[in-house]
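We now fix the convention by which a protein and its fold are recorded. Here is one such record, which you should read through line by line:

>
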Amino acid sequence: MTTIVWFRQDLRVDDHAPLLYAAERGAVVPIFLWSPEDEGAWPVGAAARWWLHHSLTGLAASLQALGSRLIIRSGRAIDVLPALARESGADVIVCARRYEPAARAVEAALAGAMGAAFVALDASLLHQPEAIRTGGNGPYQVYTPYARNCRMQGGPSRPRLAPAALASPTRWPASSSITSLALLPTINWTGSMASAWTPGEIGARAALTAFLDGAVGTYAESRDIPAAPGTSRLSPHLHWGEISPRRAWHAVSDALRRSGDPTTKRGAEKYLAELLWREFAHHVLVHFPHTPAAPLRAEYASFPWRSDLEALRAWQRGRTGYPLVDAGMRELWATGWMHNRVRMVVASFLVKHLLIAWHDGARWFWDTLVDADLANNTLGWQWAAGCGADAAPYFRIFNPVLQGEKFDPTGTYVRRWVPELALLPDRFVHAPWKAPAAVLERAGVRLGVDYPAPIVEHTAARIRALAAADQRST
């Protein structure tokens, strides 16, 4: 018997339920299908395409080590997969479930149109979105009771190792090359991303090991410090399925059990809670599939957002005049990633200081993040805008100066990404417009020339945002 394993956002061989299922049946034909048409309104963004190219290269090498190969095809799944089944003589096509509305629609279409059997297995989450229900048998919209329910279910089963080898079909189908997918940009702007990341399953396991050997011990305290190596940096690896959440969960849980250090225990527990936030995001997306385009809270559908292309562009380029905001946006452009604390600050600044719609921020993140994930991106932006699940109230408006002074007190993060402010004293690095002229001159900073003056004044922006919230509620 021959089984097609359709790789999607599960680009690994370790703890891979569809691959193990296929290996037990007989011959295996692994395929990756490049199909932007099947992604609906959210095809893979530019930064994520760079990641995908390298991740596929790693997956091909992993499959080759198992005596197999990765078939590359392009086109709609409903056209390509049935044809490949006929070509290879496969009687089953198996894949890992996805949870985005467009991906779920593709799975439903395949289930009703395949000559071969079509099987979608759970492989990307710890808990299936339909399995966790409120006492009233509905979906959750608040994280804390959702996470409590997940914990009551017990931990996930232990991860399984990759098959020792994969049986080949009698004849291999034709394949395109990974390069032919043209995922890499024609103008190479990815040098900083290449320095910051190692896409692929090997890079994912290395990142997990580094986290367990280092940052997990102080994660509860250092995860909010953008200048510190205090996070796991596993988010793109989890999004692309280069490591399973079960592997990450049990690795951190094992560290929690082994440690006698209270700080390490707090760090490990906090990271497990963050994995459940990822679960919650997918839970919300499945039960409220309209949320990538519309607010979960219907009263925000008529919110008086402003159209200000000049301000939006300043935000995108890291030229708002608020150093912490600009540092985050420049880190994003250079590396395809941004520290989570700073993500909250820059999102709040866009939707509250500038009154620009969260959709515009979500689209920019989608195109520039290597970990762009529809569930997490939607939940995060609606949280910032106050219109989603477990959202911060709209009147909670981050002061970017105070956030910088609290979480980057010596300006290390700002100086790295906004080097024109590098020589400012700590007390002015988050508010250079407050520095005396002599201090600015000694630091080589000419406001409005070397570095912009603030594009909006904080107090006035806060008053305007609260007025908009009142207008929405009337």
Q: What stands out?
A: The chain has a mean pLDDT of 96. The longest strand covers residues 27-34.
